[in-house]
Structures are given as C-alpha cells and as structure tokens.
Amino acid sequence: MRKQIAAANWKMNLTIQQGETLVNELMEATGELNETQATVFAVPFPYLVNVKNILAGKSHVFVAAQNCYNKVSGAFTGEVSVEILKSIGTDYVIVGHSERREYFNESNQVLAEKIDLCIEYGLKPIFCCGEALEVREAGTQNSFVESQIKESLFHLTAEQLTGFVIAYEPIWAIGTGKTATSAQAQEIHAYIRSVLAQGYGNEVAESISILYGGSVKAANAKEIFSQPDVDGGLVGGASLMATEFAAIIRSLK
User: Fold this and answer.
1) How far is it, in rounded angstroms, from Cα 124 to Cα 119?
2) How many CA atoms lie within 13 A of 28 on its CB side?
3) CATH number for position 206
4) pLDDT tens digit string along 125-175?
C-alpha cells in the first residue's frame, strides 16, 4: 500500500511557542502510526530545528520546509537552499504551492529545478498542482493539471518518481470554505494517476501518494480519504488546531 500522509501546512502562522505547544499536543493526542502512514509538519523556516527536536524518536512523523530556492547557494538574500535544509535534518519540502505560483510567479520550469535539487540532496518533494476557479468552470482542469505535472516532473526517471508525493490543490477551495466533493476529488486524483501511468507505467503510478489539498477538515477528512486514489491531505487552516488535525490524522487509511 502506498504511503497515506497527513501533511500540516502552517503557512505564515503561529509563534514558536504556539507551534511547539501544538506539536506536543498532537503527539499526545495521536497514537502510533503504522508503516503505511505518515504525518508531516510543514512549518516556517525558523521552527524547523525546534520541531525536529520535538519529534526525535517518534516513528512515521516528519518535518517539511514550505519552500526552497532553485539554486544551491549564492548571493540570494532571504532565500533558503536545499543544502541548508538538508543540513538541519529537514525531511520534506513543499514545491509549487498555489500561493508560491500566484504571489511569487513560480513557473513550472523553476519548480522542475527545485524538484531536481530536492532529489539530488535527498529531500522528499511534495509537488503541488491544481487549478483556479475559472479553469474549473471552463472544464479544462484535467489538461491544466496535466501540463503542470508534465512540465515539472516528466523529465525525471521512473526510479526518481517511485514513491513520490503529489498534492492536488483545487485553488478555488483553499481558504474559501468550499470543498470539492469526495467524488470530484477522486475523479481528478484518478486522472492524475492515469497521466503518471501513461508516462511511467502502472507500477510507478500506483506507488505515488496523491494528497488532496482543499479545505480538509475533521468533518470531511474520512470521506475524502476513503476514495481509492486519495492518499491523505495537505491541510492548511485545520492543521493549526490540535483537535482538528488529530482527527484528520486518525482519518488516514
């Protein structure tokens, strides 16, 4: 069974004290995960070491950076490289979140460069893709998402993509209170997997975890995660509340 993942994306929220309290509460509220499950905390850069230390000795629980730069090092004031992230024990990196694409104009080519660096330095990318409301309303979401995936990932080898993590984000459902139905989520997740299967074969496609990233809450997580091609969630607002995110973790297959 491919990995089932509950990933918390704190975005630009919480003080370090609030974050540490939240992680400690979650560790107390959730029991041991099994071999096919994982929890990932994508926290602001300054908190990575602190959260990593809190999670020391815990099984199937990891830390993620919310972004990285597409160069190894150099005169890029304010940026953080994969080399730096690797040196402090970061496990995962979110690449291509819709907010990075929208507010910072990150292109599919730039994201491909970030993916390559993550793989080179042994960090696990969580690659985000998804469409805005106007794309969904035009009915072209499948081709739109397919282009994002092919332009950023299809230069990789089958070995590099095996066990990869993709997060599908319906941008129209992020922070809006709107949520795709479980059937809508399953439909596009299945389509993404079919695109991967066409490019790399069924074995690789079936190994890839595809997370849903649109207003996941305790109330809807179990239904969404129960879909055959939905392998967990990339969770924003609900991940900032211990009781909510603990329930989401317990909703994993």
Assistant:
1) 7
2) 8
3) 3.20.20.70
4) 999 999 998 898 899 999 999 999 999 999 999 999 999 999 999 988 776
Active-site position among 106, 146, 169, 244: 169
108, exposed or middle or buried, with CB in 10 Å at 0-12, 13-18, 19+?
A: middle
* CA 136 – CA 98 distance, rounded (Å): 15
- Report how far residue 231's alpha carbon sits from residue 212's, in angstroms, rounded to the nearest whole number: 8
Q: Which of 97, 131, 146, 189 is catalytic?
A: 97
Q: For helices 218-225 and 242-250, give the axis angle rounded to 10 degrees.
A: 20
Beta partners for residue 135, in sequence order: none
Domain that holds residue 80: 4-250
Our answer to whether residue 169 is catalytic in this structure is yes
pLDDT confidence tier of residue 250, bands split at 50, 70 and 90: very high
Category of 167 on φ-ψ map: left (φ > 0), alpha (ψ -120 to 50) or beta: beta
Give the separation between CA 215 and CA 175, rounded to whole angstroms: 6
Q: How many domains does the chain have?
A: 1
Cα–Cα distance, 135 to 127 (Å, whole number): 20
